[in-house]
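Treating backbone geometry as a discrete language has practical consequences that deserve illustration. The sequence in question and its structure tokens are set out directly beneath this paragraph.
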Amino acid sequence: MSAPAASTDSTDSTASAASPAFSVVICAYTEDRWEDILAAVSSVRAQSRPALETLLVVDHNEALRERLLKEYAQGEEREHEAGREVRVLANAGPRGLSAGRNTGIAASRGEVVAFLDDDAVAERDWLRHFAEGYADPAVVAVGGRTVPVWASGRRPDWFPEEFDWVVGCTYRGLPPGRVRVRNVLGGNASFRREAFAAAGGFATGIGRDGDRRPLGGEETELCIRLSRARPGSVLLIDDRAVIHHRVPAPREHFAYFRTRTYAEGLSKALVARSVGAQKGLESERRYATRVLPAGVVRGLRDAVLARPGGAGRAGAIVAGVLSAAGGYVLGSVRARRSGVAFSPAPVGEGAHG
């Protein structure tokens, strides 16, 4: 969960005449998502506003990298058509999503670097809506709305929309439209290149590492660090910039819900250790004191009205809060004992081929 504290923004919705060039980074780690990876790349190639390039960064999986190299054979003439160039890279840092993204940033050539999950597809106007946000020179990051695609075909009755961040999607409680936020969500986001020059890249040791415990929070830490490095910077979410994120069957079960909320608590402890609890938990306080109580009341009301899943949703919200709180407490104790500290990875100005 990571993109709270929002206020309405009045940025002009008309794209600038000289809109920036976009590099799109997709990080992949397993052949189990082969079809998803191809679909993600295809959705970038089909954008109404073409990307300069798509960079596929493979996280320490040589078999997958070789397979992708063959799929997107380097040097073919068609790759250099607008929006069709695909470059396959190996993660040059330690295993994990943060280092993979940093590898993509360093190799990219665009003025703006956008990130798309390897199990998501972007709607046709995704990059066009991002570009409109950058018409304001104060804007350094623009994120979008992520919609869940449930493996079962429908949302589980017990699963509260307030916790859609558990499956990497936009959650209930964020205001609609184009709004100013503390941080964007990493799987559907973009940053000006100069943002990384000012603040560094994603800090390793906070976010996900393949199929290990589902940690997160790396984009929150980066955005807070960026706002400190560049006072007056504006970060936006535009809910018209939509991607559709696949939710596999195991993530529809309460066991994953409990594990993910606990891991989020651990992650928040690391973020607070890095940037301070006041800023690291600023938006979460509003979420916990306003959004979640309203969700419990709504669930209990639905239960009284005999609507499916009402009591389950109310119970899941309470369980999620307790699980995340437990993770935060344990993570804070561990961080203090170990003296863990995170330093942002420096990123290059672009490999330019």
